[in-house]
Structure to design on (255 residues):
């Protein structure tokens, strides 16, 4: 279990240990060199620029893969198996995830300013930020543990086959969308902890982009392949409490 937790934590950060190759390690390590110099010379402009570039890479890979006539068709055509094609996609997406995480961290680092949030006590703001980070991390980790890294990297969508038989248990028994929704609390919490309005805005934009991808491309797939096993999630309507019968599971992929 400890080994699995370690693999999942690194995998969600862009380092998928079971599938790492010398080329993928080289890409990660070599790209850390400019990051080192960015840290030595912190600049808000560079922070915003790095974040924008990481977002472009992230969503160009996602949308560019799953839109009709996109990268997916090329990778499938130039690979011997679907597994090999997905590994190519995973390599690009994991690289994007790695730099997306680094870019958010650098943006927090270069935009922290306690004066931005002086309306309230700094102690309480930091406490709330830390609490949100813990809650968001737990939710995201539990969801990632349940679905596994293959689904986290959209393997089912890519090969258009069921990778797991989804069951409405665990975190998905209570939340239909843990990765794209409540799992994002760790990002908001980190931004609050360092008093960064830029960070809060960046997390919000990223979350909206995730939902854009979900409604445009992921939801149709989820409806086709998991419709029979979607969890029933409690919904409050006025003072009455009911359960919807088939609430579409979003966020089966990364978050």
């Amino acid at each position: 279990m400890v080994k699995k937790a370690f693999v999942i934590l690194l995998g969600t950060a862009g380092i998928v240990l079971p599938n790492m190759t010398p080329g993928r390690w080289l890409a990660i390590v070599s790209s850390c060199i400019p990051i080192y110099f960015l840290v030595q010379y912190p600049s808000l402009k560079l922070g915003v620029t790095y974040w924008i570039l990481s977002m472009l890479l992230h969503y160009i890979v996602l949308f560019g893969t799953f839109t009709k006539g996109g990268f997916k068709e090329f990778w499938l055509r130039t690979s011997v198996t679907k597994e090999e094609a997905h590994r190519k996609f995973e390599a690009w997406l994991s690289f994007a995830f790695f730099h997306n995480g680094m870019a958010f961290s650098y943006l927090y680092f270069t935009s922290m300013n306690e004066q931005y949030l002086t309306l309230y006590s700094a102690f309480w703001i930091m406490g709330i930020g830390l609490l949100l980070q813990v809650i968001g991390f737990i939710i995201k980790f539990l969801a990632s543990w349940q679905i596994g890294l293959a689904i986290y990297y959209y393997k089912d969508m890519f090969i258009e086959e069921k990778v797991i038989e989804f069951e409405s248990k665990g975190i998905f028994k209570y939340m239909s969308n843990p990765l794209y929704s409540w799992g994002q609390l760790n990002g908001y919490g980190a931004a609050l902890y360092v008093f960064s309005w830029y960070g809060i805005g960046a997390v919000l934009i990223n979350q909206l982009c995730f939902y854009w991808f979900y409604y445009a491309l992921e939801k149709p797939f989820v409806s086709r392949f998991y419709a029979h096993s979607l969890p029933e999630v409690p919904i409050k309507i006025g003072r009455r409490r009911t359960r919807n019968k088939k609430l579409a599971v979003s966020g089966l992929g990364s978050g």
In short: The longest strand covers residues 234-237.
